[in-house]
Design brief:
9 strands, 0% helix, 53% strand, five-stranded antiparallel sheet, mainly beta, 129 residues
Length: 129
């Protein structure tokens, strides 16, 4: 499986989250398709390399007071949506797991709509084998 590098674009079962001063989510390792280490306010990701034969896990962490609304599209169809509360003092984490075949092979996009431009967030997309 080929893993492509994702680009963070400004403006466009929960896992562990680190303390507020450090990275909100750790690097996802070899199962990772995307890791946005940190972004502030609205944003998103476009990537490729998804494989339809594996489940896909989208995890989002945030902090700063308010919330983020996250949507994921695969081949122009929405495949996931979640909202994550972003407390002021600790990181909130949300995750959604999609079964094999939900995310189709090839490219996908994720949009993040933050309720405040002060919210700091991170996300990962993994395909565990």
């Amino acid at each position: 499986m080929t893993v492509l590098t994702a680009c963070a674009v400004a403006g466009a079962g929960a896992g562990p989250a680190a303390a507020v001063g450090g990275p909100l989510l750790p690097h996802p390792g070899p199962e990772g398709l995307v890791w946005v280490e940190e972004q502030i306010g609205d944003g998103g990701v476009a990537s490729g390399g998804a494989w339809a034969g594996l489940p896909t896990v989208l995890t989002v962490a945030c902090v700063g007071g308010g919330d983020v609304r996250v949507t994921m599209q695969s081949q122009e169809s929405e495949v996931a949506a979640l909202s994550v509360d972003c407390p002021a003092g600790t990181a909130g984490v949300g995750s959604v797991t999609m079964g094999a075949g939900v995310v189709r092979s090839g490219s996908f996009t994720i949009g993040v709509d933050a309720s405040s431009e002060e919210i700091r967030w991170s996300l990962t997309v993994t395909q565990p084998e």
